Histone H2A/H2B/H3 domain-containing protein
Amino acid sequence: MVKRRAAKKAARSKQERKICSPRLFASKILRQMPKVRMEAKARGLVKSLLTDLYQQVATEVEALSQKEESPPISCTDVQNALKGAMEKELAKHTAAEPISSECA
């Protein structure tokens, strides 16, 4: 009886501490494409690229939300952060998609 309670408590604490990491996200995305074969170094480069981009966008969103002093982060905040974090030509194509699907 005591062991079951401890097991349930441990399971709940693991669920509460679930961390969303960009490296885990990259692994999930790469696993979804079974026909694409990549070497370990290439996978590492893709993961580090996504991690770096994630961190840049997160800092941009944080700065924008603090500047506007609005607690909830809106879709336009994320879109503006993407434009700021990415190169000019790439930002045009990246920011065009969320408008039609998420923000509308």
